[in-house]
Amino acid sequence: xxxxxxxxxxxxxxxxxxxxxxxxxxxxxxxxxxxxxxxxxxxxxxxxxxxxxxxxxxxxxxxxxxxxxxxxxxxxxxxxxxxx
Length: 84
Known about the structure:
It contains three helices and no strands. By secondary structure, it is mostly helical. The protein has one domain (about 10-80). Helix 1 crosses helix 2.
C-alpha cells in the first residue's frame, strides 16, 4: 500500500495527549492521526454542505435538528446547532 509520509509538529502537551489517545484506542499513532484527519475532513464537508443548503432553503429549525438526531440514533449532546 502506498503511503504519504508527513512530518507534523505539536505543542508538547497536545503531542502527549495525542500519543495517549492513540495508545488508549489500541491503534498506532499514524492510524489514530489518519482517522482524526479523516473525521475532520468529513465534518468540514458536512458543514460546507449544510451552509449551502441553508443558504438556499433557510436555516434548519430546532425541531428538524432534533428529528435528524433521533433518526440517526445520536446522543443529544452530539447535536449541532441550537438546543431543542
